[in-house]
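step=encode ok
step=design start
structure_in=
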């Protein structure tokens, strides 16, 4: 659980007791009178003043006039909205309501209560057109999962209206809400509101600390790319072209794809007697090693791509060849390199597999490196995750074998390096 923030504790003492008491009264006033107030927005209307002026001013005072926060309320433009709101935006990650993450009080359509929420802007997603709701929900779920166990606020969807119109603004608010707490009419007091706001600000500030990428649009792009591989995959044919170009850039020659030979590991020489089978220990030239590792990796993926294409053609599923995708050419954050297909021999139906290629030039199967992310992705995809092991890369017939499932089910995994960060 996140530690309790003291952000509000000292500021509350500076506010007159009567002013604090009025906060809950103002929220209840809105619940009692909003439905019967004027239909058109009128700046002289008490409801308008309460939502747009009074409560934001009170919250600003409670936060000690913190310059990082922009606090505003709205009942709509022209005709009143059925779900008015009051938002607290930290300028570090939400310069406007349309995009970013912010704290928001939002009222139910029937005025039976209101929510305190941590939500993201919904207008920003309009650019994704028919994918807007799907992408918004994916990003919301990402934040929910990251905050799970860190807070007592609900991660369930909020319900602003009895209707389930996916095109409505109320539905979009629902799928954009990350955390929430509901206050039923006549069932809250000012102290509860202040305590909950304090806790929500604490969570909000925790999230803000991780916004180091410049702007919210970049945050969305990274999340969607990580989960959906948006913009980060190449077809097999195009990938092979780019691989050959990269190989030329590294060693000056295009790579001729040799024929792979499938061979179970530990044939011939074993992994024992390493003292006599391994090269003498010497100082590593890290620059040349990085160059060679990159070259070997590219050649291994080229071999794998061609193997997968030939496999599908051999099984009578040439139609799937163009759907083989390489994600590693754009990013190494996915925990696998290639998306391909396996075919059920009985039904001829396909299912997607996620291939991580491990390549070495040794004539025998030797140890190789595996990342924490690759291990986690193998656990996620289970039998759909394939480790494609290639060795004897520069032989006339490079050897390979495949293993499906979790890494630790198929290999002995030893932790040989750690990541460190400074203690708080």
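sequence_out=
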């Amino acid at each position: 659980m996140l530690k309790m923030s003291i952000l509000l504790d000292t500021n509350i003492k500076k506010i007159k007791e009567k002013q604090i008491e009025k906060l809950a009264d103002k929220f209840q006033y809105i619940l009692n009178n909003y439905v019967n107030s004027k239909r058109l927005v009128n700046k002289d209307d008490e409801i308008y003043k309460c939502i747009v002026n009074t409560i934001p001013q009170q919250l600003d005072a409670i936060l000690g006039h913190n310059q990082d926060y922009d606090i505003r309320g709205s009942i709509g433009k022209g005709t009143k909205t059925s779900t008015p709101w009051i938002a607290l935006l930290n300028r570090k990650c939400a310069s406007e309501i349309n995009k970013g993450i912010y704290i928001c009080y939002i009222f139910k359509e029937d005025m039976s209560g209101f929510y305190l929420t941590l939500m993201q802007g919904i207008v920003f997603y309009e650019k994704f057109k028919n994918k807007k709701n799907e992408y918004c929900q994916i990003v919301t779920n990402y934040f929910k999962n990251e905050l799970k166990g860190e807070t007592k606020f609900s991660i369930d969807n909020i319900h602003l209206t009895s209707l389930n119109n996916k095109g409505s603004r109320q539905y979009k608010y629902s799928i954009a809400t990350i955390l929430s707490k509901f206050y039923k009419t006549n069932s809250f007091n000012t102290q509860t509101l202040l305590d909950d706001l304090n806790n929500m600000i604490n969570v909000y500030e925790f999230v803000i600390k991780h916004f180091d990428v410049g702007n919210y649009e970049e945050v969305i792009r990274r999340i969607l790319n990580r989960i959906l591989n948006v913009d980060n995959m190449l077809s097999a044919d195009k990938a092979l072209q780019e691989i050959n170009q990269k190989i030329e850039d590294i060693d000056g020659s295009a790579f001729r794809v040799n024929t792979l030979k499938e061979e179970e590991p530990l044939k011939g020489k074993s992994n024992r007697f390493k003292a006599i089978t391994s090269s003498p220990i010497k100082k590593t030239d890290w620059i040349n090693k990085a160059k060679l590792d990159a070259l070997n990796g590219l050649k291994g993926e080229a071999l794998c791509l061609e193997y997968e294409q030939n496999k599908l053609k051999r099984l009578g599923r040439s139609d799937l060849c163009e759907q083989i995708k390489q994600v590693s050419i754009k990013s190494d954050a996915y925990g696998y390199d290639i998306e391909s297909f396996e075919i059920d021999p009985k039904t001829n139906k396909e299912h997607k597999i996620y291939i991580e290629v491990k390549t070495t030039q040794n004539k025998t199967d030797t140890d190789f490196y595996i990342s924490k992310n690759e291990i986690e992705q193998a656990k996620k995809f289970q039998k759909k995750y394939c480790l494609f092991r290639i060795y004897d890369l520069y032989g006339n017939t490079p050897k390979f074998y495949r293993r499906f499932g979790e890494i630790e089910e198929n290999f002995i995994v030893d932790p040989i390096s750690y990541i460190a960060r400074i203690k708080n």
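step=design ok
step=annotate ok -> The two ends are 16 Å apart (CA to CA).
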